[in-house]
Design goal:
- The complex is a heterotrimer of chains A (about 160), B (about 450) and C (about 325).
- Chain A is built from five helices and five strands.
- With about 160 residues, chain A is of the alpha+beta class.
- Chain A has two domains: about 5-80, Ubiquitin-like (UB roll), CATH 3.10.20.30; about 90-155, DNA polymerase, domain 1 (Orthogonal Bundle), CATH 1.10.150.120.
- A five-stranded mixed β-sheet of chain A has the order 2-1-5-3-4, sandwiched between helices.
- In chain A, α2 (about 90-95) packs across α5.
- The termini of chain A are far apart.
- Among the domains of chain B are: about 50-145, Alpha-Beta Complex (Aldehyde Oxidoreductase, domain 3), CATH 3.90.1170; about 175-205 and about 300-400, Aldehyde Oxidoreductase, domain 4 (2-Layer Sandwich), CATH 3.30.365.10; about 215-295, Aldehyde Oxidoreductase, domain 4 (2-Layer Sandwich).
- In chain B, α6 (about 235-245) links the parallel β12 and β13 (about 250-255).
- In chain C, β10, α4 (about 220-240) and β11 form a beta-alpha-beta unit.
- The chains are: A alpha+beta (about 160), B alpha+beta (about 450), C alpha+beta (about 325).
- Chains B and C meet through β1, β8, β9, β10 and α6 of B and β1, α1, β9, β10 and α4 of C.
- β9 of chain B pairs parallel with β12 (about 315) of chain C.
């Protein structure tokens, strides 16, 4: 079966890419567009490291056949602070020492962004639920949850 | 963030440090939160080939026939590698520091010893065609009896699965690593109580979020550049060079950014065959574990069994400790002989016990070869030893922290491996934990110190 | 039909360095004309923070701000030998190698500064600000960028250094096990508070108290990451992790994170952590290794807490709900 051209709006930019049959959105982003922030940890949806936003919703991009989302809007971690200062969320991760090896971080940031877009003042339980699809082997999660809450507060203009 | 460091203990010279001791922002945090940190697989190459393995489906079997013709017919497959393509077909990870034996082939010649053992490497234009090719390899097995537990492996009439004639590693003519310190039997006879209990731990997967892998890129000057997530760059380079032959300086390894290791990325298992594939094709080759391979094929923390026998006086002093322990190497030795020695060195735990006997076994079974994992040789041992301490405390109706304080080692004590202790602080961490949790200690225990023997029963 | 509370304890030590030694690491340092000191290594960062603590150690030794340190790792062409990051060895061995290299570079730096300032090297001091100054007359000073330019272009001096740390390898004596396994030992005491549901067998870790002695804390935030991340892994080891979920059947292996049971953020316990310092005579600024040990004492502390809660003594890890329930049944009969 031949490859075909599809269109995605990635981080606000129209991109055309050549995709092979069965190629995942993750593969298209990484190999097709060089956006390697989303990671391949399992290719079966069980680790969350590939999480990106698709038409405003968090998805496991390793499980999305990219041909089926021709024309969709995609946001990746690279689109969070494309050329300027870090978002409050990212800064909270830095200041709160919420990263160790960093491999799970992009996926978790995307899941957190998706949560905050819908719910700018989440409870701790809501944050926990939002990131429960992401595996982190290093941190034990508490610093991550704290950072998401702190980032949310900063975004709302509340001094922590 | 609450203050982490308690400066009240070991009041020292009050060093005037300006950056050591401060919470400097992580150097890699910015890269992590922007997704710009470069892990090995973030290297994008237009012309990269992909390597996938055909793996054994049997626990223990002779290889009667290995037919790769099916793989070669798959469109996109460019090369197939078998043991014949490996110049020095021994993978002995600790060979560089003189640890034997050569018992693990890179690709097996005539038999497989565990389900998942790699047999044939298939190199193709895409991952999909490499996987298809690997699936099309046909292997005819002649099953051999398999041992799947350590107990099985050590029974009298167990089938022997290793060529040296035993299902355990022989340490200088002896079936186990030994510690012999004092006279445990004499001490058991004198003790008020003798307790003997057994502990078991099941294997554990490192489960890093980033799987093991490498990309090998032939260089314009004929060298190979290995992009790897190994935990040990030169370890990997040197072992790979031994396997593929040729000058060591033909290889360059770059990396240093690992998405979680925990000991699972010191196995040097993907680089050698990927290098051979790169040399055979003169193209970049990626060999990365799928999550399934990371779960089932990559090394695990070994299953372990501990039997701990203690001679204890009525006042809580432990006068003898005899430990018999078994660490499962799985099908091949790997790092396990080292881990067993480290386990023996750790005995009897952080306590001064005048009579210690350890028999520590490295046991072979037809299972996934195990490897180092965070706390190698110690984690499961501490589970056994500290559960034992709790049981002794209960049996003697003694406070569990006071029992530990009474037996804690101090500076100047001779350890079971005959090294004189220094820098001890078990007493202090226990005292601080008691304070932290509102656990009252009797005054004599409050006054104890790692620097003296005051308060230790005679 | 109740939720039972219990508390358990465990106290451990842990060795720093590859067992029996023989695991060297080297470091090279040189200053460029930007006044920045580049450390060349072949060491790896697994997330534990080598890329942060090594520059801290170098900055401390050189007497410069950490912003003037760059770390270049890992490339075996340009970074000298390192045995690797494992066995809780990196901060200790690489740190010591970097101190040695930085001392040599610092001496060169002071000698050039002495020429520039018209003083003797022994009269000079640094305070971490980036200036080298005459201790008794601090107005006479030179900034590291100017110093580096002067060294290179005016005095023809390199501001560089070389370092290596090796604890020599010794084999054990076979008959007695006499051996020299490590460079120092770190210590820990964990107290675990748990809840056991005697109807489901599920164990919830409510809180872990982590007390550590680590020689010297190079970076408190990173040490906390290791303590708490490791405690969490210890809890995972204690209650969940096994590649044999259908023990004693050993042939069903997990294939992904769905089948390999790990706790998630909802299971994260409360933690309180304290570190005390007893500087090691062998460690960089007295630091001892910490990367591995943090998963160890939580396991027995949790097991002992389960016993305290419900009287079930679990001697096979992991402490699954099934094992707890079987234990409770055995107690009743």
């Amino acid at each position: 079966m031949p490859s075909r051209v599809i269109e995605l709006v990635v981080n606000g930019r129209h991109r055309e890419l050549l995709v092979r049959p069965g190629m995942s959105l993750l593969g298209a982003l990484r190999d097709g567009l060089g956006l390697t922030g989303a990671k391949r940890g399992c290719a079966d949806g069980s680790c969350g490291a590939c999480t990106v936003m698709l038409d405003g919703k968090p998805v496991l991009s390793c499980l999305v056949a990219v041909e089926t989302v021709d024309g969709a809007a995609v946001r990746t971690v690279e689109g969070m602070a494309p050329d300027g200062p870090l978002t409050e969320l990212q800064q909270a991760f830095v200041d709160g020492f919420a990263t160790q090896c960093g491999f799970c971080t992009p996926g978790i940031l995307m899941a957190a962004e998706a949560l905050l877009a819908e719910n700018p003042e989440p409870t701790r339980e809501e944050v926990v639920r939002a990131i429960s699809g992401s595996v982190c082997r290093c941190t034990g999660y508490t610093a991550i949850v704290d950072a998401i809450l702190a980032g949310a507060e900063a975004r709302r203009g509340v001094t922590v | 963030m609450t203050e982490l460091i308690d400066h009240d203990y070991f009041a020292g010279d009050g060093d005037d440090l300006h950056v050591v001791g401060t919470s400097v922002t992580r150097a890699d945090a910015l890269g992590h939160v922007t997704g710009r940190t470069q892990f090995f697989e973030d290297l994008l190459l237009a012309d990269c080939l992909h390597l996938k393995m055909h793996r054994s489906e049997r626990h223990h079997a002779l290889l009667k026939r290995v037919d790769v013709s099916g793989a070669l017919e798959v469109p996109g497959v460019v090369r197939v590698l078998t043991h014949e393509d490996v110049p020095e077909n021994w993978y002995t990870v600790l060979r560089l520091i003189g640890v034997e034996p050569n018992d693990q082939p890179v690709l097996p010649e005539d038999r497989v010893l565990w389900r998942g053992e790699p047999i044939v490497a298939v190199v193709a234009e895409t991952e999909a065609s490499a996987l298809e090719g690997a699936a099309r390899v046909e292997v005819e097995y002649e099953d051999l009896p398999a041992v799947l537990t350590m107990e099985e492996a050590l029974t009298e009439d167990a089938p022997i699965i290793k060529p040296h004639g035993a299902n355990c590693f022989i340490y200088e003519g002896h079936p186990c690593r030994r510690i012999r310190f004092g006279n445990v039997e004499h001490a058991f006879a004198q003790a008020d109580h003798v307790f003997e209990w057994r502990y078991e731990s099941e294997p554990i997967e490192h489960a890093p979020v980033e799987t093991t892998g490498c990309i090998v890129v032939p260089q314009p000057n004929g060298r190979l550049k290995i992009h790897s997530n190994t935990q040990a760059a030169f370890f990997t380079l040197d072992n790979t060079a031994l396997i593929i032959g040729g000058p060591f300086n033909r290889l360059q390894l770059v990396g240093g950014t690992v998405g979680g290791g925990f000991g699972g990325k010191v196995d040097v298992i993907v680089e050698p065959i990927a290098c051979l594939a790169a040399l055979a094709t003169n193209r970049p080759v990626e060999y990365v574990y799928s999550r399934l391979e990371e779960m089932q094929v990559s090394s695990t923390r070994s299953a372990e069994i501990f039997v701990v026998k203690d001679g204890v006086m009525a006042d809580g002093r432990i006068v003898a400790r005899k430990v018999t322990c078994y660490m499962e190497a799985g099908a091949y030795t790997g790092h396990t002989t080292y881990g067993v020695t480290k386990c023996a060195a750790h005995m009897p735990g952080p306590y001064s016990i005048p009579n210690v006997w350890v028999d520590a076994y490295c046991v072979y079974t037809n299972r996934t070869p195990t490897g180092p994992m965070r706390g190698f040789g110690v984690t499961n041992a501490d589970f056994a030893l500290e559960t034992q301490m709790d049981r002794i405390a209960r049996a003697l109706e003694m406070d569990p922290l006071e029992l530990r304080l009474k037996n804690a080692y101090r500076d100047g004590d001779l350890k079971a491996h005959r090294k004189v202790a220094e820098g001890a602080a078990l007493v202090e961490v226990i005292q601080r934990a008691a304070e932290l949790t509102g656990h009252e200690l009797a005054e004599e225990y409050e006054r104890m110190s790692s620097l003296t023997h005051a308060g230790v029963g005679v | 039909m109740s939720v039972l509370h219990g508390r358990g304890y465990a106290a451990v030590n842990y060795p720093t360095g590859m067992n029996l030694g023989g695991d060297p690491s080297q470091a090279l340092i040189h200053a460029t004309t930007t006044g920045t000191f580049v450390i060349a290594l072949s060491s790896t960062d697994l997330g534990q923070g080598l890329k942060t603590v090594i520059p801290q150690i170098a900055a401390e030794t050189l007497g410069l701000p950490v912003e003037y340190i760059l770390l270049d790792t890992a490339d075996t062409d340009t970074g000298p030998h390192c045995m690797g990051t494992f066995a809780s060895r990196a901060t200790h061995r690489v740190g010591n190698a970097v101190i040695m290299a930085a001392r040599e570079a610092r001496q060169a730096m002071l000698e050039v500064a002495a020429l520039e300032l018209g003083a003797e090297p022994e009269e000079l001091a640094t305070d971490g600000s980036g200036f080298v100054f005459v201790e008794d007359d601090p107005e006479r000073r030179i900034f590291i960028v100017d110093l580096a330019l002067a060294a290179h272009f005016k005095h023809g001096r390199t501001l560089s250094g070389r370092g290596i740390f090796l604890k020599e390898h010794h084999d054990p004596v076979p008959e007695t096990g006499e051996m020299d396994p490590d460079s120092c030992q770190a210590h820990a005491c964990t107290v675990a508070d748990v809840e056991v549901d005697d109807e489901t067998g599920e164990v919830t870790v409510l809180k872990l108290f982590n007390v550590y002695e680590l020689g010297r804390v190079i970076n408190p935030a990173l040490v906390r990451q290791q303590i708490e991340g490791g405690a969490y892994m210890g809890m995972a080891h204690a209650l969940y992790e096994t590649t044999e979920p259908y023990y004693p059947k050993r042939d069903h292996l997990p294939s992904n994170f769905g089948e390999y049971v790990l706790p998630g953020p909802a299971e994260a316990p409360e933690m309180e952590s304290v570190v005390i310092e007893r500087p090691s005579s062998t460690g960089p600024y007295g630091a001892k290794g910490i990367g591995e040990m943090t998963a160890n004492s939580p396991i027995a502390a949790i097991g002992n807490a389960i016993y305290d809660a419900c009287g079930v003594r679990l001697t096979t890890r992991p402490f699954t709900p099934e094992r707890v329930l079987r234990g409770l049944d055995a107690l009743k009969s």
